[in-house]
Amino acid sequence: MARSKEQNEKMRETRKEKIRNAALLQFVKQGLFATRIQDIAACAGIAQGLLYHYYSSKDEIFVDLINDALDKTIEASYMVRDMDTEPGEKIRFALERLVETIEHSQAFLDTCRLITQATNSTAIPKQAQDLIQQKRNIPYQVIETIMEAGQKQGTIVAGDPKMLSIFFWTSINGLAIYYSTNNNREVKLDYRVIASMFLVKNQREVEEENDPKNQTVFK
Q: Which is it for the CA torsion 69, 123, 126, 19, positive or negative?
């Protein structure tokens, strides 16, 4: 029985995703220059000739990965910005989800490494360079506006909102790079440690910290 148009499209997207995942692994492991198109095909478990039905070159795959990663980060940033809650809670929510993703998504870790490598290299396709130039700062700008709004409401600490946004994203990126390049996972990540750099403690939190029942006594 012939496949329907929807089935064909689903199969095509599934194969493209396999190619992208395989390429991500190879680019992070070997770099763009050293990665061969046959390496990607072998990692994806498909014939090299079939791969060319989806991408004309490894550079095209690289550009697609960079664009997809940037777009997803921007989309997530806008989603947090548009949440129906106060700015401090937006920052808390974003950090909790990002730290959880760092702990459980190897693809996220590899993508962070890929973006970092690409940002610091001129030996990548011009189209990828242009995409990074156009899109990389948008999530920083979104978090900056949230920080500024939170300062006006008294839920975000004082300081240059742009600087706070830089601290936000470099903290996340640094953790992702560490987890991606280090097998030591003994330390349990706690998003609240990062959040404490940005959030003003409310009265309830202060009272809980000062409550003797919640304090450890060392003898």
A: negative
